[in-house]
Amino acid sequence: MDWDKDGDVLAVIAEKSSCIYLWDANTNKTSQLDNGMRDQMSFLLWSKVGSFLAVGTVKGNLLIYNHQTSRKIPVLGKHTKRITCGCWNAENLLALGGEDKMITVSNQEGDTIRQTQVRSEPSNMQFFLMKMDDRTSAAESM
C-alpha cells in the first residue's frame, strides 16, 4: 500500500486479486480499479510529484495509472519475472527492479529509457542527486 503525494488517496493491492483498491481519505470512499492484465500484483508506488501510480505484477508487467485523468497504460514485458521494488524521482522517472536481476528506468508513459543487468535481485531502490565538478545541482539522475 502507498499514499499519493498529497496524502489524500491510499492505494492497496491484495494477494491473488487483479483489483487495485483506492481509498479517498477526504470522502471516506473506496473504489476499485481493475488492472486489466489478470496478473497477480506484486508492487505499487505513487509518484512523488504527479498523480501517477505504478503497479508491477508477478509476471513482470507494469500498469501506470494516472489518477487525475483515469488513464491506464499497460506495459507488457517490462521485466521477465516479478517486479519487486522501485522508486520515482522528481522528474517522474520510474526505476523498477525485479527477480530477473534487471533494473529498468521508464518515463511516466511507460517507455523504457534505460535498462541494466545487475548481479543479484535489486531491493530498496532510490534515486539520488549526483554533484558535478562545476557545482551545478543536477537532477535526481542516479
How does this model look, in words?
Pfam families: Beta-prop_WDR19_1st. One of its GO terms (cellular component) is cilium. Residues 1-141 form the WDR19 first beta-propeller domain. This protein has 142 residues and is an all-beta fold. The chain has one domain (2-117): YVTN repeat-like/Quinoprotein amine dehydrogenase (Methylamine Dehydrogenase, Chain H). 0% of the residues lie in helices and 49% in strands. It contains no helices and 14 strands. It has strands at 2-3, 9-13, 19-24, 29-34, 41-46, 52-57, 62-66, 71-75, 83-88, 94-98, 102-106, 112-117, 129-131, 137-140. The strands form 4 sheets. A 4-stranded antiparallel sheet has the order 1-2-3-4, with no helix packed on it. A 4-stranded antiparallel sheet has the order 5-6-7-8, with no helix packed on it. The chain is globular and about 50 Å long. The mean pLDDT is 91.
Summarize this entry quickly:
With 142 residues, this protein is mostly beta strands. It contains no helices and 14 strands.
